[in-house]
Every structure is written in structure tokens, then in C-alpha cells.
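Researcher: We plan to redesign the surface later, but first we want a full-length starting point. C-alpha cells attached.
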């Protein structure tokens, strides 16, 4: 048992030293390839994703303004981080218990916001109406949700959590917050608060900038 414990490593660790070493290596590799071949294509053989993001900035520096490249690097990093965390939570927690991340998302909204029609569920879950419609069928079959007439409009249908659905989302959420804490342990409390503020600022700016989003 002791040997098994020694082999276990935390999912998220402070890898600043590794990141600095990777950055130094890729900088040297890219510079060497540019000098000898005129491009950085050979660097791809030794890249991981994060050093790839850095390499794109180096490689495209002569063609685009620094401001554009910095924005590109920020979006690439944001997408990668979100995708990595979502994949981990889905594969470890939600796929075995609920079937998918989408199922968890819909149940989570109903659990917190209460019964609602499917179009409102799509808005609050940031999913398309088609995706919600398809997932609703699955959740109905599994007995996690049920349809009921609207309390004030008998022609409208609202979606409700069932008892088994409530148990399922409560169990899944309890596991998720533990896993999320492991991910966020790489940041201090202040850094987490700052990250939340920055992401809120980013999302709230989309209307001012004329950008589009689903909701």
C-alpha cells in the first residue's frame, strides 16, 4: 500500500520550473531552425500544446502585430484550458454517472433554477435548442427529468427534475467540486478571484464590441 501511495502524483502541480525549461528549449529550437532553414517547422517534433502556442507567436511575429498575436495566444490558451478541464470532469465523473457533460449541464441548471421550458433551458445552459432537445430525450428515458404542463399555460410544457434526477445531480456535483478544487489548487485564492473577474469582464464586453455568442 505504501508503494502505491508513493506512485500517486497530484493531478495538478506547480510546474513553473518545467514551463520555464520548456520555454527556453522551444525558444532555442525555434531560433535555431529559423537560422538554419528559414522556418520553425522542425520544432513540431518536440512540441507539447503549450510550447506550440508559444511557437505560433514566435513564428508569426514578422507577419502580425504583437497585439494580435497576444490576443491569439490568450484565446488559444483559454480554449485549451477549458477543454482540458471539461474533458477531465466528463471522463472521470459525468460520463460514468450521467452519460455526458451535456447531461450534467442540463440537470445542473434544473437543479438550481427549477422547472422551465426547453428554450429557457437552452439559454441558461449555453446550448443550442437542438442539442437540448436531443439530450432531453435521453434524460427522459433515464428517468432523470419529466415533462409537465406549465402552471399558468396548459399548452406549454416545462421540464422538471425527478427524484432520481435530483439524486444523480447531487452525487455528481459533490464529486465535481472536489475535482475542480484539485484543478484550481494551481492558483492562489487571490489568483482564482482575479481569474473570475477577468473572465466576467471578457464575457460582459462582447455586447459593447459587437461580438456574437449563443446567449
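Model: Full-length starting sequence:
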Amino acid at each position: 500500500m505504501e508503494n502505491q501511495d508513493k506512485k500517486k502524483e497530484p493531478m495538478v502541480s506547480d510546474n513553473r520550473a518545467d514551463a520555464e525549461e520548456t520555454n527556453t528549449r522551444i525558444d532555442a529550437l525555434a531560433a535555431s531552425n529559423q537560422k538554419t532553414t528559414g522556418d520553425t517547422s522542425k520544432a513540431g517534433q518536440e512540441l507539447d500544446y503549450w510550447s506550440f502556442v508559444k511557437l505560433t507567436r514566435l513564428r508569426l511575429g514578422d507577419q502580425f502585430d504583437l497585439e494580435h498575436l497576444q490576443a491569439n495566444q490568450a484565446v488559444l490558451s483559454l480554449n485549451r484550458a477549458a477543454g482540458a478541464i471539461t474533458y477531465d470532469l466528463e471522463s472521470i465523473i459525468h460520463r460514468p454517472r450521467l452519460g455526458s457533460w451535456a447531461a450534467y449541464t442540463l440537470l445542473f441548471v434544473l437543479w438550481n433554477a427549477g422547472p422551465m421550458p426547453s428554450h429557457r433551458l437552452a439559454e441558461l445552459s449555453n446550448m443550442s435548442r437542438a442539442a437540448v432537445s436531443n439530450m432531453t430525450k435521453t434524460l427522459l428515458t433515464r428517468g432523470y427529468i419529466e415533462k409537465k404542463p406549465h402552471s399558468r399555460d396548459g399548452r406549454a410544457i416545462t421540464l422538471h427534475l425527478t427524484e432520481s434526477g435530483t439524486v444523480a445531480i447531487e452525487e455528481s456535483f459533490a464529486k465535481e467540486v472536489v475535482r475542480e478544487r484539485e484543478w484550481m489548487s494551481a492558483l492562489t485564492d487571490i489568483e482564482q478571484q482575479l481569474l473570475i473577474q477577468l473572465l466576467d469582464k471578457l464575457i460582459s464586453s462582447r455586447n459593447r464590441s459587437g461580438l456574437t455568442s449563443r446567449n
